[in-house]
Amino acid sequence: MLLVLALLAAGGTAAGVVLHREEAAPSASKHLAPVWEVRAPAADDELIGSWLTQKLLIRASTRGGLTAYDLADGSTRWTAALPPTAAGSGTRPCAMSPTLTAGGLGTVAFGKDGNSCTDLAGVDTATGTVLWTVPLVDAAHPTAMGAATYLQGGVATIVSENFLGGLDIRTGRRVWGFKPRGYYCNAYTWGGVGTVLVDDYCADNKKPFTLTAYDGRTGGTLWTQTQDAHTDIAHVFSGSPLIAGVHKAGEDSVRVFAPSGSSRKLAVGNTELVPGNDSDADHSARLVGSVLVTPATTAAGSEVDAFDTATGARLWAYPAVALAAAAPGDDHVYALAGPPASPQLVRLDPRTGQATPVAELPPAATGKQRFTAGTVYVTPDGGVLELDAQGTGVGVRFSR
Fold first, then answer.
1. Mean pLDDT value of segment 287-300
2. CA atoms in the 13 A half-sphere facing the CB of 195
3. Burial of residue 57 (number of CB atoms within 10 Å: 0-12, 13-18, 19+)
4. Which of 111, 221, 247, 251 gets the most CB atoms within 10 Å of its CB?
5. How far apart are CA 159 and CA 181, in angstroms?
6. Distance between CA atoms of 130 and 112, rounded to whole angstroms?
7. Is 256 exposed, middle or buried (0-12, 13-18, 19+ CB in 10 A)?
8. What whole-number distance in Å separates Cα of residue 363 and Cα of residue 358?
9. What percent of the chain has pLDDT over 90?
10. Residue 79, Cβ neighbours under 10 Å: how many?
11. In sequence order, what E strands does 40-154 have?
């Protein structure tokens, strides 16, 4: 994201890789049955994000709004409504924090579409109550832009071309705001849970190009690096430790950053790593101890890869349709594997990639792929939630 002088207003090697490409997916003895589904509200509905609690699935999409569904039967428990002062600028979700606080609070940005955000809201997931709103446009920044938002403890960060800073998740009051290094500056910004990255150019500074990491909770500088040119961050896989896809002139790499700002490459090779299952709304890539488990794509198809972040070595690769997102209270790694029309749930050992069959999902209609892009959850009772990224029919499908 490009930030134009804005402040937040008050208010290793692959030699030892275990490849499972030629293995047949293990057979599961348990067969899941359809429980409920929710149709997408429109053909152009786009998934923005989701939260899973012990009893609710909360889904944000451009045409469906922010809605909570009861895991028991799929009934609507609540739909969040912005106050009139904010609703006039747009009511379609455009960004959503990947996580919730321990008390069930989260942040969602709204606007006229999925790419232009005009307000950030704090939401209580127990009731759907909008606790506060903060405008993301003003007289100095009248054009709505895309945004991202993250939680770190009680502080919510907002990362956009218009505003960059931290807010108290309970009240929406400013905790910190970004200050440019000079008067003639522009900056590109990215975020993750716990970290904000700023790549800037300041014409009136002796060090015109820098890349700086800020603490998402306090806004304090974690480290800064002088550069010869701009650095582009393709993806942020983890905020702590910071793991990011970095693009510089002549080189693309995925790097694990130390607290000092020094970094080590992951042995990615020709594999493309992505933080989610072909959707910006999905955040299934995550750390399990010191192992990064992430969706990936090769010439052979989609897979799940694992890397030792201490050495940079790739540990294993397993062919999979999707990596399941982390669920509350469950540290297991699950994936959908097997034929796209009739995948099954497998549990993967994060260190070895060894697959254990868990359950077969109900088959899709003849000739159709069951899941293409979006988010998959495994619920506490062993069910599987599939959230499609695009509104081509079923928006949410639950099997158990």
1. 95
2. 24
3. buried
4. 111
5. 18
6. 18
7. buried
8. 16
9. 76
10. 11
11. 47-52, 56-61, 65-70, 76-79, 92-96, 105-111, 119-124, 129-135, 147-152
The region of weakest confidence among 83-87, 88-92, 246-250, 356-360 is 246-250
Strand partners for 88 = none
The reported pLDDT for the residue numbered 3 is 45
Q: What would the mean pLDDT of 355-359 be, rounded to a whole number?
A: 95
Q: How far apart are alpha carbons 297 and 301 in whole angstroms?
A: 6
Q: How far, CA to CA in Å, does 43 sit from each of 20, 113, 372? A: 36, 15, 15
pTM: 0.91
Cα 220 to Cα 14, 175, 212, 269, distances in angstroms: 36, 11, 10, 34
Cα 85 to chain center, whole Å?
Answer: 29
Judged against a pLDDT cut of 90, whether residue 393 lies above it is answered with no
What is the radius of gyration, based on Cα positions, of the chain?
Answer: 21
Give the per-residue pLDDT at 332. Answer: 92
CA distance 217 to 362: 43
pLDDT of amino acid 13: 41
